[in-house]
Amino acid sequence: MSRPIAAWNPLDWSLTHGVIPYGVLVIGFAALLALAVSRSRHWWSRRLPCAVVPAVGLTVLLQITVDDWWQPFPDGLPHRVTFWIGIGILGVCLAGFRMPPLPWRGRAAAAVGAAVVLVMSASQVNRHFDQYPTPRVLLAPWIGRTEALTIGKDPHTLAAPPGRTLSEVWHKPAGLPAKGTISTTPIPGTKSGFKARDAYVYLPPAYQASPRPLLPVLVLMAGQPGGPADWVNSGGLQEQMDGFAASHEGLAPVVVVVDQTGSTWSNTLCMDSRIAKAQTYLAQDVPDWVHDRLQTGTGRTAWSIGGLSLGGTCALQLAVNAPQVYGSFLDISGQDEPTLGSHGKTVDTAFGGDEAAFDAVDPLHVMARQKFPDTAASFVVGASDGEYGPQQQKVYAAAVKAGMKAKFGTVPGGHDWNTFRAGLADNIPWLAQQTGLIR
């Protein structure tokens, strides 16, 4: 059997499995060994220890800075990631201490060796998170293309009658495009004042038809650090949604990937607090913009919200704090409560130490005092995720107790893009069922 044509395109070669990452690993260790070994006794007695000690110290300092002081994201650096960052630092330190007595050619060789070690380090970190599975994804900010957003209103629309799904009354017209479109667009914080980065909008093939079917809407959020582009690039959003549409005569949800943090390293907690009015943005500004610019299904049963990691926590928050907007949600590897790194820091920063104000919007507290019999929930986590797995189980149990139509599932992987991609792929049919697209 011949290989798929895409497999011959270097842009589609795997950076996380197979020949490339293992080749980089072998060459990288060879470079590290070459930097670490010398015939000079002076090297072994003085220069090598002088390189190793600061490398270890800088690695430890980095982890302490990130996990304990800076806390740019709720979960700390995984030990495997810290190890590989440390290897990269070690390569640079070894090269630095080798250079002084060497001629210019030797110094150039040491610099190249350090660069190779850094590439190996970055490759192994990428293998852990699987954020850049191919060169195409890695280069997406430069080679990726988007299309102009279709914002005109069609005078003829198609809605499902009571008791029936949209797919049961839809008939695919001739000449319908085989694939949907991805566009970027600003969604202003008109009511919230929130300054968000541009959103990505996926419109399925059926959106281009006339009469236009009133498709359901999925509001999707990435994690932190991150942004809306992550779902499009690392998450393969268009490929996933186009695949579903191809099996359903062009029908798929309209997907709006929004920015709930404002920047790569920010964390708004998806709440209305001293930090930002992020809940108002997600519960009012985003739906208002969609209703104004697009033609979609209306009402909470046609709207779902989802996300990964911090975005998954946000999806749960919006589902229980704005149930009039979102009738279903997908929580992939989310947390059991919104956090800036610790409960105390979260309450102090966001609410000035007011525990009651935090409890008023914290999902576990909301579900403990309120029932949600008309909300559908899906919780997904990596089977080997020892940190977020127990938290997801806790939230799932609370959702069931609150009367939600909830389900819990695991997919192979940890807290990485293998899990996030699979979590969405497994739940696209479920989301389509909850929003009345298919039976």
Written description of the protein model:
The protein is an alpha/beta fold and 439 residues long. The protein folds into two domains: 17-129, no CATH class; 145-434, Rossmann fold, CATH 3.40.50. Helix content is 46%, strand content 11%. It contains 16 helices and ten strands. It has an eight-stranded mixed β-sheet, with helices on both faces. Helix 3 (79-98) runs antiparallel to helix 4 (104-129) and helix 14 packs parallel to helix 15. It is globular, with a radius of gyration of 25 Å. Pfam families: Esterase. GO terms for molecular function: acyltransferase activity, transferring groups other than amino-acyl groups. The chain crosses the membrane at residues 19-36, 48-66, 81-97. This is Enterochelin esterase-like enzyme. Keywords: Membrane, Transmembrane, Transmembrane helix.
